[in-house]
# Entry
Amino acid sequence: MQFIDLVSQRARIEDRLNAAVLKVVAEGKYILGPEVAEFEKQLADYVGVKHVLACANGTDALQMPLMAMGVGPGDAVFCPSFTFAATAEVVALVGAEAVFVDVEEDTYNMNVEQLQAAIDAVRKEGRLTPKAIIPVDLFGLPADYRAIMAIADKEGLKVISDAAQSIGGKRDNAMCGSFGHVGATSFYPAKPLGCYGDGGAIFTNDDELNDVLRSIHFHGKGETQYDNVRIGLNSRLDTIQAAVLLEKMAILEDEMETRQKVANRYAEGLGDIVKVTRPAAGIRSAWAQYSIETERRDELKAHLQAKGIPSVIYYVKPLHLQTAYKHYTIAPGGLPVSEALPSRILSLPMHAYLSEEDQERVIAAIREFHGK
# Structure
């Protein structure tokens, strides 16, 4: 049984994938070939934004908007602590400081009430200037952007949506990636929409911001690549990866529907014995991960392993307790949920090719462990 099954997905579209990749190789347009522009167009249409900028990886996709917005030393950027390191890493890379906010118990997304308290505390202290918020759509579930944008508009802050795990998810008929002033995602192979290497993308409706981002992603170029008008990065999506992503885009919506069926079966089969995620009405998770909570997590993980069932702990330690980030500010009241989750949470096999038979094996093993 696979935790994430890329082999079955590849078999489904193997002929088209092979043809697409060989076409790029034969044509020799390895950097910014026509497939890149076509992928950007198709993804913009799918997400519902004016501009998509494909780039080298999801970390760059988060960092470049901070650069374009002029965020740097002396600035505060508010982000959750219970997430992957890249969310806070990019803040440090531009010289700003992360201010960590707790997550909600049921959604694992940013606690909006504590976000406001954190902004108030930073303003009162006066050492840093609040500049931006980076909410994370953790495990594929969109954050509460209506509430976050209300705070951002009131406080004059920019919102960079970290949609690295959520492309295909939606909230109130808006697709993940379209929220905030700018969105960012990753095409790491294990993502709901993943390539066969590293890749990422930035989403925005802001024409001027898009122009600056396109300059930054190509060494800060102006009229040509030899006209450098700002400090930038080398962060272009390879044409071969764009070709792969175009083929995967064609089956993405079908895979989203299948992932939802898998999530429904887990909720029905396990909801009475462990804590499961139940998105509210009008919300679709991309289900990058399907995570449960249980008091005897480590014992359960060992039990599943003995039966040949893979599982993964996301995340073993919140960022504010990591060596690299422990000196950064945390929101008033501390981060109790972020600190409790690492001992309780466990992610189960989740992908569009998980058979009902294999999923029933997972459910039966967990129920057996709990004596149910």
